[in-house]
Structure formats: C-alpha cells, structure tokens
Amino acid sequence: MGLRELFQNHLQTLQTETAKTLAELNLDGLVLSAGAPGWYFEDDQNPPFRSNHHFRHWCPMEGCHHLLLVMPGEKPQLRLYQPADFWHEVKAFEPDFWGDSFKVQTFTDEDKLWDHLGEGRRIAYHGPEQEKARKAQLLTDVPGLLARLNWARLVKTPYEIQCLLEATRKAAAGHKAAERSFRQGGSELDIHFAFMQAARSQEQDLPYENIIALNEKAAYLHYQAKRDEVHNGKVLLIDAGASSRGYGSDITRTYATEDAPEEFQALLADMTTLQAGLVAAITPNVMMGDLHVLAHQKIAELLIRHKIILDCDAQKAIDLGFTMAFFPHGLGHMLGLFVHDVAGKQLDREGAMASPDPRFPKLRTTRPLQPGTLVTIEPGVYFIKMLLDPIRQSANSRNLNWALIDRLMPCGGIRIEDNIHIHDQGVRNITREFLP
User: Fold this and answer.
1) Backbone dihedral angles phi then psi of residue 274, each to the nearest 5 degrees
2) Which residues of 318-433 form beta strands (DSSP E)?
3) What's the whole-number average pLDDT of the chain?
4) Phi and psi for 369 in degrees, rounded to 5?
5) What radius of gyration do the chain's Cα atoms show?
6) How many CB atoms lie within 10 A of CB 120?
7) What pLDDT score was predicted for residue 64?
8) Within 48-204, where are the H helices?
C-alpha cells in the first residue's frame, strides 16, 4: 500500500474517532493549532520550533501558526499560514502525498487565520495559543477532550508504523556510522557528527538530543556533553534516534573494545541476551509493570551470575534494593510523535489512570500493551557511584563485590533499547530489522 493510501486511511481513522469524541462532549467541531515559536529569554533568537503534537497527528505540515478545523462529515480544513517575508524563507505549499486530504486555505495575515471559527458554534480548541482561541470564541480546556485525543494516539495506524520504520532506517544508518567512529578512536563529538551525517539529519530534526557517552559517562542516564578531548574509549553508550514526518525512533546500543575489562565484555554479551528475552516475553495486553518486575528479576540473576551480587538470591537482591541501584529507570515507554508518548498510564478514553506501583513510582508506562501499541524495551545495568555508595556504607555492603564494581565503574554502564510494535500475533522488533 502506498503512502498516500496509508495516510488517507490514517486520516479516516482519526475522523471516525474524533466524530465519536465530539458527540460524547456535545461539540460541533475541533480546532488544532500548530502553535507559535518561542523566544530565548531577553533575546531575539528562537529555539527550534516543533508543532503541537496533536496537530502533527493529523497533518505533517511543517511550520508555525497553521490551524486545522475538523468537522464531522467534512474534509478537514487546513488554514495555512504563508506570510510575505524576506527575512526567512517561506516554503511553497508542496504537500506531496497528503495535501488532497485537506481543504486548504492560505493566509498571509496571522490574525485572519482565526476569523469565523467559533461564531456561535461549540468548537473546541487544543493547542498552545489559548488567548487567541478564546478571542475566536473557541472553547478551551474542555473537560475530557485531552484524554480522548491522547487515547486516539495509543494504537498506531499503518501510516504511523511506516513513519517509524523510516525513522528507524535513518537512525540505524547513524548508529552503524557511530560504532565505526568509536572503534576508530573517535571522540564523543566525532561519534555524534558521524551519526548525524549518516542519518542525514539536522540537530533540530532529532526526536531528542543524542546521548554519546564514552567510558564512565555512560553512568549518566541523560548525559548530554559531547567531549572532543577524549579519544579511544573502551566503552560507548549511544542513545540516538531519528525522525520521519514527526515520528521518532529511540534506539540505544552499548559497545566495548577488547581493551575493556573482560568482565564488562561478558556482562555486555549477557545483557544483550537478557534484553532479547524481555522482548520475547511480551504478549498482547501484558502489563508493562509486570515486564518491569521481570526485568528486575532477570537483572538480579545476571548480577548474581557475574558475581557482582554475592551470597544472595534474586528475590532478596530485589527486596534489598540492589537491582534499583544498578537499574534505576523504567523498562520502557510508549513511542510515537513524542519519544515518551502520551497515554502511557491511561486505561480508557475518559482518562482513568492505572494505579502506580509503589515500588516503581517513576514508570512512564503502567498500562496493558494492547495490540497496535508501540513501546521501547531498554533494560540497563549501570555503575553509579551516588546510588551504590549508600549500600557500600550499609549493613548489606558484604553482599556486593566491591573490588569488581570498582573495576567496572570506569566503564559507566550498559543500556540496550529497541522499538517494539505489539500486534495480535505477537511482537515485531522494528529496530532489529535495520540494526541486527
């Protein structure tokens, strides 16, 4: 099926879902705005602009100020903002596969974009331009609307899967180039540039800032610096994705050279197997929290097998908080237009939320993984001094192999992350199709 037909089917799904939402909330229509650019504090420069995510769910149009009017039974109306401007390029409207799915009107005056939207009708609004919406007689902050919009994002359409496939292909090319640069002795900055060139991306197009961590810096979960003075690393942790039509992939790999400690190399090999086992454990409608518990069980067994945890079974290692010190983040999250996509804890379209697991309060996703959803699976083992020091100073210190931990501390840590599509027959590891 071609991209045009995929998008038309995607739009039909959204129109059906939105008509249901409007009927439930006694609304006549919905306006979504792309949003307006912001400004750096006391500066005349803009941060990179990214349009409102619910606008992007409907329309892959780049740029700010555009509006979309959705009315049941009608072709969606795209109000396109194209000002006369010689300071910045205003790209011609060349929509390719998706343009004929909308009734398009072009405006050169930003204020006139909002004319004749409300006018006595019950038209709801979602977006960041609340004041303009109120002046246009649109209904802002309608109870129940956002929950229903987020609910429609959970199950991905074939069009959305195709966008993620393309984002994964780009990111996989970047990851392969990054590994080559690492093994050739490149700095973090060298590795970053290698990824960007191979992924054919600009930094503002990335779904998130690349994490390029050599050696001990891999222990920082969201490490952002890209050192140019450190070369010939023994360990690389790279967490980097790419975007396609607003949808982002999210991929992490860890590599080690022959100069890394043998114990770390062995741990990395077994973590690779462990991650694949967690992916294989996914069944339709499994609870993400249950998979997270399984991840702690498997990581406990791994640390015991590698003699990092001593004189302790797996359950005791979990109960004593050892695995939380080595694996302090969640197993994964929903993926889509946001890297950490919406509705990860939502149980129904009205907005009921799953109860948090008191053992793991920071999990981003606690809902069932129903067919059609996309999640990341990203277990890790890290050597984080601030998390391990309290155990070192406690009565349970004897249960950890401090000599080995100190030997592995300069390696930072390990994370392996794939993007997984759950469907009726099982799971599809999209990442492995491009990055075995």
Assistant:
1) -60, -45
2) 374-377, 380-382, 413-415, 418-423, 426-429
3) 96
4) -90, 80
5) 24
6) 7
7) 94
8) 53-58, 130-135, 145-151, 158-183, 188-199
